[in-house]
């Protein structure tokens, strides 16, 4: 597994990008951990790559933000909301979105893939706030 850290987020195997919306032509899956302006700044009306997976709340927030701020205008057709706390099967990996307890809709991502009979797992936290209730879980 090749992990490339970027100032904004993470790229995994040049196939999965989290909070990174550059021009890497090999990236097939894009994830947005939050509707915060830091994560959204490269999402514009010119976005015509693959769909961006995010939480249902973030998807709704993006729609509102797009209607009010032209610099973040992105068509709803490029947004794919994923339910939290369930595994979602993708090509070559699966992902679970977990509440990050930060801004509304913000999530952490757990990504699992199997490579040569070895399970590989990544936890992407983005911004999160650790609370005692979470520690007890």
From TrEMBL:
Query: What GO terms are given for molecular function?
Result: 5'-3' DNA exonuclease activity; damaged DNA binding
Stored Gene3D superfamilies: Ribonuclease Z/Hydroxyacylglutathione hydrolase-like
Superkingdom of source: Eukaryota
InterPro entries given in the database record:
RibonucZ/Hydroxyglut_hydro (IPR036866)
GO biological process per UniProt: double-strand break repair via nonhomologous end joining; interstrand cross-link repair; telomere maintenance
**Mind telling me what this protein is named?**
Uncharacterized protein
């Amino acid at each position: 597994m090749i992990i490339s850290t970027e100032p904004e987020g993470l790229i995994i195997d040049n196939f999965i990008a989290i909070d990174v919306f550059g021009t890497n032509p090999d990236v097939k899956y894009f994830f947005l951990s939050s509707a915060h302006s830091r994560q959204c700044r490269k999402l514009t009306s010119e976005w015509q790559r693959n769909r961006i997976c995010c939480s249902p709340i973030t998807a709704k927030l993006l729609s509102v933000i797009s209607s009010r701020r032209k610099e973040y205008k992105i068509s709803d057709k490029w947004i794919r909301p994923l339910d939290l706390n369930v595994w979602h099967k993708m090509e070559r990996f699966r992902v679970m979105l977990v509440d990050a307890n930060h801004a509304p809709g913000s999530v952490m991502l757990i990504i699992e893939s199997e490579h040569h009979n070895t399970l590989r797992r990544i936890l992407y936290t983005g911004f999160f706030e650790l609370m005692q209730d979470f520690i007890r879980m």
